[in-house]
Design a protein that fits this description.
elongated; Glutaredoxin; Jelly Rolls; 350 residues; seven-stranded antiparallel beta sheet; alpha+beta; 17 strands
Length: 350
Amino acid sequence: MAQDTSARTPGLSIADRLFRATMHPAAAHLPDEGPMPPLDGATGWLNSPPLTAAGLRGKVVLVQFWTYTCVNWLRTLPYVRAWAGKYADAGLVVLGVHSPEFDFEHDPDNVRRAVKDLRIDHPVAVDNDFAIWRAFANHYWPALYFVDAEGRIRHHRFGEGEYEQSEMVLMRLLAAAGAGKVAGDLVAVDPQGVEVAADWDTLLSPENYVGYERTDNFASPGGAVLGTRHSYTAPDRLRLNSWALSGAWTVHRQAAVPDEPGARLAYRFHARDLNLVLAPPAGDPARVRVRLDGEPPGAAHGADADADGTVTVADPRLYQLLRQPGRVTERTVEITFLDPGVQVYAVTFG
């Protein structure tokens, strides 16, 4: 981002300095990346009647691709939610495109529940067939596309971060569309729970999947037996970022499912936060118990666990099991499934 020389000009408000920064030629040059693709491939809409690219002309549009269990997207949500609220009167339309990763994310009722629980008020296109995803030639969750009032894509951002730069692009496009000086400072957010940014300085564990289609570093002796019930054991020691099952499990393409009470998943990791994407079995909610280096997590419990490590899996979503205070070191989590039938999809960190 170009240096904002107006910050050294006496007598200017923060809003004026931000506005000058967005209008500075070096800071504001935005290439034309082509027209906004059509939206007619959506399989449904939430919070809005169906929208079209042509019908959005005259508005600045921020398109975000997401899937509701993606921790990287969840950590961008406080900013997108704040932008949608702050700039609506200036002509901004925030449009979420929900392109599902896991099978249960194709269920419109699950997406509708997530939209309500996550306080998403802006329009959401349900993209179960990935038609809009392909039209944008998108490859990422999350992805932001910035569309000007003429219907041209002028900027994009893949992944987390660069929130100030993204907001300044929005301010530039709104000013060019005739909104005038967009008043006020950049948004300030107060994320909670899983929406808090990762502790990047201590994050040494990458996302991993539990189903056989995409998993890495599975350490149970003999490897995974695919698609059938099998009794697993865990080695005495796990290397960093390796994991193992013990007890009776069935490992499917996307998820592994414990077939008996007391089946366990152990993972060696180095991160402040540990999250699990889980779906309950058909019927009643299921109980899960978390242990950190063999002990209840106490103050290290996440938003979805208590200090004793108890978690109730009631809906298919991402569950935050651990958030460690203080110094972060390499540790082992052991997750015991007190009720069988829980679908275990992915492990993520923060």
